[in-house]
Each structure stands twice: as structure tokens, then as C-alpha cells.
Amino acid sequence: MINSILSGVFRKVVRWLARCAARYFFGWIAGIYHIFILQALDQWLQGYANRISVGINLFPFTGVSVILITLLTIGFQAIKAAIANPVKSLTSE
After folding, report:
1. How far is CA 11 from CA 6, 8, 68, 89, 92, in A?
2. DSSP for 8-57?
3. Domain annotation covers residue 91
4. Most confident of the ranges 19-23, 35-39, 44-48, 65-69
5. 50, 81, 82, 91: which could form a disulfide with 10 (CB 3.0–4.6 Å)?
6. 77, 55 contact by CB (below 8 A)
7. What is the extent of the structural domain holding 26?
8. Is 60 within a domain?
9. What is the average per-residue pLDDT within 63-84?
């Protein structure tokens, strides 16, 4: 009974996180991130003898990688918590 309740709550939490991430995180953070970090990184790299140019294609790759790793980690932990037997964890404490 408890596992079925937890799985329903888990689905709602995952949907809510996905909606919040799509609305706020991607829009605001990506825009601010590209504007300021690209210029700051370019100015910082100008002080070195071997200069490289930082292209705009670097940021989407790193952003998607970070978001993917975060979602996989949180998803794995949430599924593990939803599947776990609460009686077993309470008796071990």
C-alpha cells in the first residue's frame, strides 16, 4: 500500500520538477550564462600566450551534460527511495 502511494507521489514530483526546470531554469540561466560567461572567459584567456577562442557551441554541450547528469542522479535516487521497503528501513534504525 505504501509503495503504491509513494510511486504516485514520485510521478507527481517528477512531472513538477520537469515543468519547473523547463520554465525557469532553461530560459533565465541559459540567457544570462551565455552573455556574461562567454565574455569573462574570453577576457581571461587573452592573458595567456597560447590563446584559444571560446565558441558559442561549447555552452550548450556543457549545459546539456550537467542537466543530464543531474536528472539521472536525482531520478535514480528517487526511484531507489520509492522502491525501498519502508518497514525494512525503520527496523534497521
Report:
1. 9, 5, 18, 22, 27
2. HHHHHHHHHHHHHIIIIIIIIIHHHHHHHHHHHHHHHHTTSSS-----TT
3. no
4. 65-69
5. 82
6. no
7. 2-86
8. yes
9. 88
How many domains, the chain? 1
Q: Give the CA distances from residue 40 to residues 10, 34, 52, in Å, rounded to whole numbers and listed in that order.
A: 40, 10, 14
Evaluate whether 22 touches 52 at the Cβ level (below 8 Å).
no
Q: Confirm whether 52 is domain-assigned.
A: yes
In a domain, 93, yes or no: no
Amino acid at 6: L
Task: Indicate the average pLDDT of the chain.
Answer: 76
pLDDT in tens, 51-61: 667 777 777 88
Angstrom distance (rounded) from CA 67 to CA 78? 16
